[in-house]
Structures are given as C-alpha cells and as structure tokens.
Amino acid sequence: xxxxxLKDIRHAYTANPASDADYALKRVDHVFxxxxxxxxxxxxxxxxxxxxxxxxxxxxxxxxxxxxxSQDVTDLATxxxxxxxxxxxxxxxxxxxxYDNLAFPLRNRGVPEDEVARRVREVIAMLGLEGQAxxxxxxxxxxxxxxxxxxRGLVRADVNAILxxxxxxxxxxxxxxxxxxQLKELHHRFGHTMVYVxxxxxxxxxxxxxxxxxxxxxxxxFGTPEELFERPSHTFVGYFIGSPGMNxxxxxxxxxxxxxxxxTIELPGAPGALGAKRLELGIRPEFVRLGRxxxxxxxxxVEDIGRKKIVHVELEGENIAAVIDEDLEVPAEPRVSFxxxxxxxxxxxxxxxxxxRP
Length: 358
Ligand SMILES: Nc1ncnc2c1ncn2[C@@H]1O[C@H](COP(=O)(O)OP(=O)(O)OP(=O)(O)O)[C@@H](O)[C@H]1O
Known about the structure:
This protein is α+β, with helices and mostly antiparallel strands. It contains eight helices and 25 strands. Helix 2 (98-107) crosses helix 3 (113-127). 38% of the residues are buried. Residues 4-241 form the ABC transporter domain. This is ABC transporter ATP-binding protein. Keywords: ATP-binding, Cell membrane, Membrane, Nucleotide-binding, Transport. Belongs to the ABC transporter superfamily.
C-alpha cells in the first residue's frame, strides 16, 4: 500500500489552455495517506473521473506530478502502478467460476495456491458469496457479478491502492447499504489505501474517513464527514452535504454585526477585512431555532420526515429551512434565531474565519 501525493496537478483536455475555465482540474495538491479511505464526491462533470484516471495512470496530467510513497509515477502506465480498479459495471469472466474469477488476479502473479485459497475464501465470506463459489459467473445476477468485481479488487494484498469508480451503480438499492458497510469492514480488515468516486453523499459519508468534495474542477474541501457538516469550507459543500442543505443568506457585515435586510445578527467573532466580496451567512437547518424568540418569519411549508419536521419559512424575502422535533408546536406568530456557535460566514463562496470574542 502506498501514500499517494498529488503535487500541483492540473489537467486540460484542450491543447492550449489559456485560463482556469479551460482546465477540467484547476489545481489539486493533496496527500492521500497510506491505508486511508477517501471518497471523491461531487456533481457530474466536476472532475472526479479525471482525477481518478490521473491516479490510475489512464491519463497523464497536463501539469504536476503524482507520487506513490517517494516514487514519481507520473510517467508510469497503469500496469506499472500496481493498483486494483473497480468500475461501474462488472468485469468478470463468464465462463469461470466465482472462485476462479476471484483467484485470477492472484494466480496471474504467481501467488502460491494455499495463499490463493486463504485470500479468496476470506473475500468470499466477507461478500456473502459462499453459496455461489463453485458456480460459473454466467448465470449470476448483475448484483452478484459486481460483488465479484469488488472482490477481485480486494483480493490482492500487495496493491498500492484500490480505486473505485461509482461501483454501486448497478447494485439494487436495498443491497447498496449492505455492500457499503461491507466495504468499510473490508477496509478496516485489510487496510488498503482506497479512493472511491461517487456523486452520492450517503455513499461518500458512510464509506470514507476523508471526503474530497469537488466542484467545477476544484477540491473545495478535504475533510472528515464531521468537518463537512460542522464547518463547510465553501457554500457548495454547505448545500451539497446535508438534507436539506445549509441555508445561505445574502448579508452585509459591519464589525461583528451581520445585516439581513432590516434584521441584525451578532456574529460569534469579528471577520477580518472583507473588501467588496459577496457575503452570505450560512446556517444549517438543524441549528435554526423556531419559536417565540428572534426574527419574525412566515411559514411556507411543513414537511414531516419521521421524528423530525422540516419547516420552510420566509425571512426578509429569503427562504430558510428549519429542522425541528416532530412534536414541537409552531407558534401562531413564529420567529427564528440561529445558534451562534454554528453560524458561518462566506465571502465570494469561501468560508471566512471569525475571530473569537475575547
Ligand atoms: N475525454 C474528454 N475530452 C474532453 N473533455 C472531457 C473528457 N473527459 C471529461 N471531459 C470534461 O472534463 C470535465 C470533468 O469531467 P469528469 O468526467 O472528470 O467529471 P466527473 O465528475 O467524473 O463527472 P461524471 O460523474 O459525470 O462522470 C467535464 O467538463 C467533462 O466534460
């Protein structure tokens, strides 16, 4: 297994990129630690597959270098990088049995047969394929075939990394949760460096220790699931992560006071110089208090989501979502306040740190 360093990587599909807009990857400079579980998360077209292909060697970056531990692999082909890959659609040999499909990557490298048997049995057990081990792959469902593809990725102990590109796309929804959990267990057990591409936040947050959120060719946050929730670095992370996402409200700021229309809100600290940047206050729906205290609002819609309710209100012409307990009564003249510890400020979409009060 290896530590993967992406050093000032940029990539453009056009021949003579002139501006940032011409780059599918604007600049990526991050380290994926040895044995870590990473998810690349973002909407379609943000550059996830481009980055994964740069790690696997399918694509050579226009600029920058990629290192596996201290070895510069930028110019090495995929086969020379010693990585395993799992794609969206199953890659299995139909005429082979499940067992032989899983044994193939090991036998190919001359691993002794007793070691093959030990590894393959372990993977078969983890994926719950015991009943199918001696069956040919041809007759299996696409779920089962994709489990074999996952198994083939996981069976080798000596790989530098395992790369997954939306591996659960063909999996039946009720099995997805089970497989995600199994992958997490396999990661703990085998300790591979894993990079998992997805546009699904639940997949990313359940699988990864570190989530790499991408947006328009940039990494906008590289953090734990808790950090993405508590301290989104960019407004995109705020509204992409969470359900519903973070409320973002245009604001003016003077000293420690934010103005939302005619309302004022005390900030938890003083932001530094903000210049002429576009400012927004961010507050997650979980930290909006709805009651008799605070700023007057009008109710737009109430959604029941089990033990909680999402109440959509209007404040100074802006829509805000609040998540409240199911049994909390909404007063006749509702007001909202924001938990100051969970207020964020964004300038031109990027988070601004606020100096704590003395
Ligand atoms: N071979 C290519 N030639 C030209 N442009 C490309 C090529 N592959 C990707 N792009 C462009 O690069 C950008 C990033 O694409 P990429 O496939 O990396 O995004 P993604 O986040 O993986 O999206 P998806 O989830 O849809 O696969 C997009 O604007 C895409 O149109």
